[in-house]
Amino acid sequence: MKEIKTKQEFEEAILSTKPVMAKFYAEYCPDCQHTDLFMPILEEAYRERVDMIALNREHFPEVLEKLDVYGIPSFIAFKEGKELNRFVSKLGKSQEEVEQFLNQIVEASGKLG
Question: Is 32 a catalytic residue?
């Protein structure tokens, strides 16, 4: 996953015509570290259909506040600057759940054209 370093970089990334899934995480979060184990597998499987970026919540509190993200890890999909879907909760995420979310992104993106 591409690590986002600035707010401008995030804003530019989500303008893509290809769906972009943003993972919001924190280094101290054990559930976030668990998702790191399987994210490379999903990134490889979906790389033609979905770009994936990562944002450390400690560096982007204003972005999380604007998006109403409080639980981590959280995933939000964007296309052309608009939110497509989100997978946000305070609970941990399994590989199957994130894969299901990615499938929803691909399906929603196809409906938008």
Answer: yes
